[in-house]
Automatic annotation (TrEMBL):
<dbReference type="Pfam" id="PF17775">
    <property type="entry name" value="YchJ_M-like"/>
</dbReference>
<feature type="domain" description="YchJ-like middle NTF2-like">
    <location>
        <begin position="38"/>
        <end position="132"/>
    </location>
</feature>
<protein>
    <recommendedName>
        <fullName>UPF0225 protein GCM10011608_34400</fullName>
    </recommendedName>
</protein>
<comment type="similarity">
    <text>Belongs to the UPF0225 family.</text>
</comment>
<dbReference type="InterPro" id="IPR023006">
    <property type="entry name" value="YchJ-like"/>
</dbReference>
<dbReference type="InterPro" id="IPR032710">
    <property type="entry name" value="NTF2-like_dom_sf"/>
</dbReference>
<dbReference type="InterPro" id="IPR048469">
    <property type="entry name" value="YchJ-like_M"/>
</dbReference>
Length: 135
């Protein structure tokens, strides 16, 4: 699946909620120019990947032991907001961390929210998504 209108997305605010243009924020991680420095930064970049339609990045940023063989994003789901609720560890010098968040979306005109507590670990020195528990 191709990314959704990535040129337009690069000029708008990054979906991750940090307030930077997408081109200066999560896009750098999506195209491999940089790695996420913290577990929270990786979680935000993964949310942004859902929002811009980048399943390849989602797979690349997934731990090898839990990564699915393929990933299909729902084209009818539009991600509209992210709230970070809590973080535990996951900093520059940590090897594991947890981020709890609420991701808001619209599908078929109806709002929805995913609340999740995601676990992240370092694999080969890079932060990757391990798994999650829905809350």
């Amino acid at each position: 699946m191709a990314r959704r209108d990535s040129r337009r997305a690069e000029q708008t605010a990054c979906p991750c909620g940090q307030g930077l243009p997408y081109a200066d924020c999560c896009r750098r991680l999506h195209i491999g120019e940089a790695d996420a420095p913290t577990a929270e930064a990786l979680m935000r970049s993964r949310y942004a990947a859902f929002a811009v339609g980048d399943p390849e990045y989602l797979l690349r940023s997934w731990h090898t032991s839990t990564r699915p063989a393929r990933l299909r994003l729902d084209p009818g789901q539009r991600w509209i907001g992210l709230e970070v609720v809590d973080t535990e560890r996951g900093g520059l010098f940590d090897s594991a961390g947890t981020v709890e968040f609420r991701a808001h979306y619209r599908e078929a005109g109806r709002p929805g929210t995913v609340t999740e507590r995601s676990r992240f670990v370092r694999e080969d020195g890079r932060w990757v998504y391990l798994d999650a528990v829905s809350t």
